[in-house]
Design goal:
alpha/beta, binds zinc ion
Amino acid sequence: MLIGLKEALDFGQAHNCGIAAINTPTFEMLVATIKVAERYDIPMILQHAEVHEPVNSIENIGPAMLELAKRSTAPLVVHVDHGESYEFVKRGFEVGFNSAMFDGSRLPFAENLKITRDVVALANEYGYGVEAELGVMPGREDGEDSDAGVGDAALYTDPELATEFVAATGITALACSFGTVHGLYKAEPKIDYELISVLRRRTGVPIVMHGGSGLSAKEYRECIVRGVQKINYYTYADKAALEGAKQYLADHPETYVFAPVSVAVGRSVEQNLEELVRTLYEGQLSR
Ligand SMILES: [Zn+2]
């Protein structure tokens, strides 16, 4: 079933857990993500990032995401991830997405604030939640230069600006930069936990972690306790997808068709996501 962004985040807060937000640009990722949500009967967020348009356009993969979410027994949000313009978010809403992130973090503050307000006004017409970003997070979902800027305090979200930004835009959740990066970690992440607490307290909205791949269970838990309720996760699931394919090909060198590889990919992603949600729910899952 479809639920709203706010509903999912409220669940996270009530249960002191992180809601997994998974990019599903391929059908294998989509089906595996929903299977895991159903298996544990937990809310999850299915996302399509603008950077994944070359993999599958939002008009192609979006209706599949929505249809499978609506008929699922698990509560699911269908969310535009890293919309880089007002127009892309609008395209998502037109497809039927019921939540969106506008990412103006690379724009000057005033411009980011202005477009975010416009996106919130559009979302309000539908009653949808909006996530926006302040502070620069190194790397992108497509895995480019995730190294640059690791541990550079100048890139971390400024609590003063964040408070002003949330009050002026009326967003539902704030993506912040506090030491995680997109893509694979080549150096140890330097997470500023105290900054998360300050941002959560002062802005009054749940904090979103981008670059959730590759943190330890302890690091996840500490971020959640401090106020992170949405965990964006993609790189390691996609890495697991590729490993599933490689393993299948190594075990079946004689194969001359693709479908069994797709099955192996799905299974591998499922295992990876199961491990993730167990960490995010620490002991609260019954199965
Ligand atoms: Zn992100």
